[in-house]
């Protein structure tokens, strides 16, 4: 109390950070968070883990330099509310302040995340990570407001990836199910269609099951009926207003 009366700024800020750490970052249980795992982690580790789970396509490992171009903010905002910043991948990394301002304004207007730090500050390589943590700690509890101007993300089927034994040149057997995985995290949201073409030119649609995981993967299976090289036409993403195929 004496430090507050005396106006000791360093100790007052230390007290404020302790309150933020305890009440805003440490206490609440967040969506998809395991209680036991949360108890084993520091508040910093918990927040970083939550962000990494939300935007796995970006290598976020800290609360300063990984936020310098503003694109990570756009990715986080768009993941919390798909359609708020759908074009964040195409943002110019040489315009970090503009990128951060766009993402933070959308979060402020439609997710209720106040700008407790300025766009110019969060993209500064020397930014205080406590300030960044304070700002980002509001996202796990953010809720989308009605009437938000959500926009569709541009589909890019060519970024769909396929891997697994079912697409290997050896090891699959005629008349026995073959399995592989299609990953669409970078391709956009939509219905995934996969077609298998056999050596005789016959094409049939493979069975596709959504795994509902963070990388938006799909389990694909088909039964080869003849021996030889098969082709998989993957990444076909159908939307309500049309079809985009690779």
Mind telling me the C-alpha Rg?
23 Å
Termini separation: 67 Å
| Number of DSSP E strands | 8
* Biggest sheet record: 4 strands, antiparallel
Helix content: 25-40%
Tally the helices: 8
Strand order of the largest sheet: 1-2-6-5
Silhouette: elongated
Write down the secondary-structure element order: HHHHHHHHEEEEEEEE
| pLDDT averaged over residues | 85
What is the subunit arrangement here? single chain
Question: What fraction of the residues are assigned to beta strands by DSSP?
Answer: 15-25%
Can you characterise this structure?
The protein is α+β, with helices and mostly antiparallel strands. 32% of the residues lie in helices and 17% in strands. The protein is built from 8 helices and 8 strands. It has a 4-stranded antiparallel β-sheet with strand order 1-2-6-5, with no helix packed on it. Strand 7 and strand 8 form a beta hairpin. The longest helix is centred in the first third of the chain and has 18 residues. The protein is elongated. The C terminus is likely disordered.
Short overview:
The protein has 246 residues and is α+β, with helices and mostly antiparallel strands.
What is the topological layout?
Layout: H1 2-6, H2 9-26, H3 35-40, H4 43-54, H5 71-80, H6 96-110, H7 119-122, H8 129-136, E1 161-163, E2 178-183, E3 191-197, E4 203-205, E5 207-210, E6 217-222, E7 231-239, E8 242-244
Antiparallel strand pairs: 1-2, 2-6, 3-4, 3-7, 5-6, 7-8
